[in-house]
Design goal:
binds adenosine monophosphate, 5-stranded parallel β-sheet, Universal stress protein, Rossmann fold, single chain, globular, Rossmann-like_a/b/a_fold, 6 helices, 43% helix, Universal_stress_UspA, alpha/beta, UspA
Length: 151
């Protein structure tokens, strides 16, 4: 069993695709006897709007955080993922996912991946970003399709 995965990190954007991504990871975890952690990252409001809006954004950030934690629990808890393995962090998805994986000895990251064509392909995706910097295996679960007319 030395090749078995021991810690699988599932990254979810909290859309309906999250269920597909998690459902692909669950049997892998079961077969390997691996722990599953699940992560969602929130963009820092100060990063998006800092300086442009003359107000304290921290209470709005707290509300977004609370809402994201509830959504994440709705997705993860029915599958037996414990609250301590459910993580909401603030930052950019690809770098935060990589950081978490490195800090917590994750050996498989599972992300969703939209089929992209044309211009959308050039814009890249979270799954591409995660793959390029990850120090462990990455499984990209096909979750749908983004046309170049969609973005
Ligand atoms: P994308 O193709 O960039 O829309 O992202 C597809 C996948 O990246 C999603 O199915 C998730 O696995 C992951 N992802 C995107 N945004 C986030 C986020 N904010 N937090 C965690 N994972 C994310």
């Amino acid at each position: 069993m030395s090749n078995a995965y021991q810690h699988i990190l599932v990254a979810v954007d909290l859309t309906k695709d999250s269920h597909l991504v998690l459902k692909r990871a669950l049997p892998i975890a079961e077969r390997n006897g691996a722990r599953i952690s699940i992560i969602h990252t929130l963009e820092p409001l100060g990063f998006a709007y800092g300086g442009d809006i003359p107000m304290d954004l921290s209470s709005i950030q707290d509300q977004l955080d609370t809402h994201a934690r509830e959504r994440l629990a709705d997705i993860a808890t029915p599958h037996g993922i414990k609250p301590e393995d459910q993580h909401v962090v603030v930052g950019m998805p690809d770098s935060e996912i990589q950081r978490f994986a490195k800090d917590r000895a994750v050996d498989l990251i599972v992300v969703g991946s939209h089929g992209r064509h044309g211009f959308a392909l050039l814009l890249g995706s979270t799954s591409t970003g995660v793959l390029h910097g990850a120090e462990c295996d990455v499984l990209a679960v096909r979750v749908g399709h983004i046309d170049d007319t969609d973005e």
